[in-house]
Write the structure tokens for this entry.
Amino acid sequence: MKLRQISHSISRSEAAAFRLYILPWMIGFLVFTVGPMVYSLYLALTNTILGGSGHFIGLHNFIFMFTKDPLFYTSLVNTAYYAALSVPLGLLIAFVLALLLNMKMPGMALFRTVFYIPSVVNGVAVILLWGWIFNPSYGLLNYLLSIIGMKGPDWLANPASAMPAIIFMSLWTIGGPMVIFLASLQGIPAELFESADIDGAGWWTKTMRITIPSVSPVIFFNLILGLIGGLQVFNQAYILTNGGPLNATTTYVLNLFNYGFVYLKVGYGSALAWVLFIIILGLTLFIMRTSRRWVYYGET
Amino acid sequence: MEMDTRLQRRPLQLLLRYILLIALGLTFIMPFVWIVSTAFKPPSQVYTIPPQWLPRPAILTNFSQGWTILNFTRYTMNTLIITVLATLGILISSSLAAYGFARFKAPESAILFAIVISTMMLPSQVTLIPQYVLYSYLGWLNSFKPLILPSFFGVGAAFFIFLLRQFFRTIPRQLDEAAKIDGCGSLRIFLTIVLPLSQPALVTVVIFSVINNWNDFLNQLIYLNSDAKYTIAVGLSFFNSKYGPQQVNLLMAVAFLTLLPILVLFFAAQKYFVQGIVMTGLKG
């Protein structure tokens, strides 16, 4: 009886200690995340203008979004275009680089550094650098194309090539997924390859039957993180083209930014934010659900 | 090592790999060569085809001229203040929370940890507008407060809480028990045992937080709206829209200077980068 009381009071003091240590996070979570989310849900149902007042208008923002706002669909399509190309292509390049780096030979650390650095310096400076690379007359890219006899477009001023240009530059910053792939490749037990060798399996068979299934959990992880990031693309579109030409690079978040912070329509902007949240949540859950079929977590 | 022997049996395959790696490596390096080359060019050599890779003469005045066209010294100070204080906030709040999750149990601890993890997936745009409204009520607009204070309350720290908790759990509990017998309280154990032993993980947190803040743009763009408060990121964007296309050699010179601190940090602490990323990928 007495022992039980002691253990009970220990676990109670343990719970108290737990609550004390996570208190700062808990306050932040309630004040800066939960509170704003609830408030945002309320704002989404009003026509509030920043600095002014607003009225409750029910679902009108959402009705306007789906039936009248042309930029909603444009931005959605643009963002889907960006994510549908930059995420899989980025993962593919990251995976191929990791495969190439996966050998214990001199120079691998240097190459890893070279491929990784762009993702470290991934800020405004690098976006401006790419703007200069895409310069139609004097930029690096069109110069390189001219060497092989091609005439490059005015990348950022042409509606057909502006988004491809932004996708292209995103493929330069794949260092994060690459390092994760590499670590995962290095964790594959060598015996698997040895027994495949004995069975006479070729490179392709081994890649498809051993390598890819073994790294499928990190493909899954990189895919989810890549998609969440890809659907939030903003900086490049804002700095290089500000959504142009002809809204060809108006991404979802750029449209949200314009409504919220340029036109100050925070009610409608909040509605846009919730729709983005639901899209991201839905896609994440969908991938998680299908992942049971293609992600291989080993025997355990 | 298994790759080793298989490849040594096939020298041709090995050679092919190196050639491919070198070609790809040069491709990845080229934008950096381009920025450095442009940064040293006299105006007459900037807009030429074919490009002059080696500027003759290489001039240094682009750096001083670009730096002072706008007040980049001020922007750098502002960026440093935000980065250092926000990182301090992240370090304190994430290590405290991680210690709580790693060492103490409460009925709600499992569900709260799941919440921490799920906030990593929450797009920040959902809270962007309401947070802005909140800060405008608090009178925080055009100040560094929205960019610094939330980090002391674990905002944006979910990944770091996760990373540190994983690390703290690898520290043997016997050390805690021994200290407890000596009469140490849990805070003292945290400060004198857990934190000193977690130095590599803490360095990883510092580095990633510094990079996040240095590379941030959207938040700084929204909250800072006077020249005296601008950061490097906002200043560069402003520079570009004002002078960019005409004086791209100055723009590249300044852009390159602002990359340098991050590059130095990267080379000084490379192993912590790799460690940090690998921890996320393989345990997440």
Observations:
- DSSP finds 15 helices and no strands in chain B.
- Chain B touches chain A through 103 residues (CB under 8 Å).
- The domain at 71-232+261-283 of chain B is CATH 1.10.3720.10 (MetI-like fold).
